[in-house]
Design goal:
Layout (H helix, E strand, L loop, with lengths): L1 H24 L4 E4 L3 E3 L11 E9 L5 E12 L7 E8 L2 H6 L14 E3 L4 E10 L13 E11 L6 E10 L1 H8 L4 E3 L7 H9 L8 H6 L1
Antiparallel strand pairs: 1-3, 2-10, 3-7, 4-5, 4-6, 4-8, 5-7, 8-9
């Protein structure tokens, strides 16, 4: 009898898990894939660095919803007790960004919440700057490792949720290029979803590689 009771308990637990999974699939289930960071050419931008992130939003559920806002927390390894909170300040048109030689235009579109329909995905290129400017100190970059945490607030949750964590190391060459008014690309090679890579490649945000460089790899 004990074995029968255990068997029935296992079946009930499995049925509950399947039901919960089906209910979840009927809900709004947003996710975001990210990890790459672009430092646009400085040009006439305000003091301090601003970060441009390619973000790929996916909705695995069968109901639509709204991605209300995102935020980025940046923590230097050398100053781990003083993380910086960055807020989204613009939704960047990547084609225009490339046409203007990877320099940000002055008339940027502000970032706003957006609808994500059921079983759909959407790529956005979001510019982040230090929250509460000009009271807060601007983002000052130095050589070393930086940790990034992306938070998303969606209409299916009462509180923002930590979606992704990743890190990059800024080298002296990166900083020299940035001071020379060149765009700097920090690529996260841990992103392995082929579909995401193809979607981002279609937008041609990555710097082109010459045939000689391609053959070298």
């Amino acid at each position: 009898m004990e074995l029968v009771a255990i068997g029935l308990s296992i079946l009930a637990l499995a049925a509950a898990a399947v039901t919960a999974l089906k209910i979840r699939k009927l809900e709004f289930c947003p996710e975001v894939v990210c990890g790459d960071v672009i430092l646009p050419r400085a040009g006439l931008t305000p003091p301090g660095a601003r970060l441009l992130l390619p973000l790929h939003f996916c909705n695995a559920g069968h109901a639509g919803g709204v991605v209300e806002w995102v935020a980025l927390r940046v923590t230097p390894e050398t100053d781990a007790d003083r993380p910086l909170l960055l807020s989204p300040v613009a939704d960047v048109d990547m084609q225009r960004f490339i046409q203007e030689r990877r320099r940000l235009s002055e008339d940027l579109e502000p970032f706003t919440g957006f609808t994500l329909d059921a079983r759909r995905s959407l790529s956005k290129f979001v510019l982040f700057d230090v929250a509460e400017r000009p009271r807060a100190a601007p983002l000052s970059l130095r050589s070393g490792r930086y940790y990034f945490e992306l938070f998303v607030k969606a209409s299916n949750a009462a509180q923002p949720r930590l979606e992704r964590c990743f890190h990059h190391t800024l080298e002296a060459k990166h900083l020299a290029d940035y001071r020379d008014d060149l765009a700097v690309y920090l690529i996260d090679y841990q992103i392995t979803l082929p579909g995401v890579r193809r979607a981002l490649a279609d937008s041609e945000w990555m710097p082109r590689t010459s045939p000689a460089q391609s053959s070298a790899h």
